Amino acid sequence: MTQPSLIEIRDAIRSGQTSSREYVQTTLQRIEQLEHRLGMLISHDAERALAQAEQIDAKIARGEPVGELAGVPILIKDNLCTRFGTTTAGSRILENYRAPYDAHVVERLQQAGAVIVGKTNLDEFAMGSSTENSAFKPTRNPWDLERVPGGSSGGSAAAVAAGVVAGTLGSDTGGSIRQPAAFCGVCGLKPTYGRVSRYGLLAYGSSLDQIGPFARNVRDLALLLHTIAGKDHRDSTSVDEPVPDYVAALDRPLRRMRIGYAEEYFGEGLDPEVRAAVEAALDVYRAAGAEVVPVHLPHMKYAIACYYVVAVAEASSNLARYDGVHYGHRTARPKDYLDVYCSSRQEGFGAEVRRRIMLGTYALSSGYYDAYYLKALKVRTLIRQDFEHAFADVDVIASPTTPTPAVRIGEKTSDPLAMYLMDIYTVSVNLAGIPGLSIPCGFTRAGLPIGLQLMGSHFAEEKLLRIAHEYQSRTDWHTKSPALAQP
Ligand code: GLN
Q1: Class level of CATH domain 6-261+390-485
Q2: Is the pLDDT reported for residue 2 higher than 80?
């Protein structure tokens, strides 16, 4: 059975065919059945969600106008601030933190009438590729409970794959939306840097972070992007570009499609089954009349090194605010004033976060700044220029989202570098600030999902989504769900 899409749920509620209350109840039942097996959520509030659903149902019954997502249950990553409940970022240091304001995207979802049922699990402060770095619990992959869902937005990806909700939000600093989307067989979009306001997103790498949606198909991604995109004066890096009607654009015919194929994405370490699935996806495009042309991204080979300098440098600065004074956990019996900081941070942060703070502090320290941080910024410019040159000739670039399918729980935890290498195909998109998405393009023989990544030029989400939609109109990979998603 195929799971209903976000738009189908929205339309069923709007027409009175079903109520929001019914859908929210189904979501709550699915959470009840699956949460102990999957570990998708950090918190949820059934009473609040049901009350909101009833309000929407009453409005619809009275014939009052309602928003684009009226009554639709949604889950959001727990690094997005909400006035209700807690906002933990998957960290002990914020275990009981209650945000005094809503993130911009939360306001937008609520204005559209969405019912935010709960908040999803993540790697602590979004640092990781497997959701094993959550301070609370790992999330499991709905296709194989012994495997990771990817990360850091693992809970958001798993919840869509498991049929708990049809749409979620995550954040993507180096792949945290696209990589778990690929591992869980769902769709995920990282918008252009500046497309969506980061106001109320707990910062990791501020020049890389973007918020974006997960869903089962591209049409739903388009609707969610339309809901959250646009200028917000509270994030000065959000851009005042018009927000097109991404959903309506999907049905306009594409006059031409030039798809870039970069050798650099098909090199060493790429699993043969992943390669075959992505090559087959390119054949689908060829059959649709697209031209597949070679492009060159010569600086791609430095992307991981560059990303893991820039991201950790920014993280070390951003995480300085968790000092035991302003926010969150404070050590119980400090020896002295300095110990308030040291012990609070030592107790509050997990091992990976501490590792990154140390790496970032080192890369920014005098004597090393020029050798590491400044050098990485220069490499970053070269990577961005590689993409600019490529996009002068093609509409999108296609690649695998990840070099392998989902790995086993624990498989990479003892080797941080091996974990970082899982991000090899995703980080350059963030370094360049361009949009990228992942859609399902097949399965391995063992039944694990494979993701196709499509990358576009700055603010070209409309074209990117249309080209992704073209693939989904010719294939049915995105309609498959794991056995446990069947009610
Ligand atoms: N895995 C990458 C990291 O750990 C990306 C995480 C993310 O996009 N938030 O930094």
Answers
A1: alpha beta
A2: no
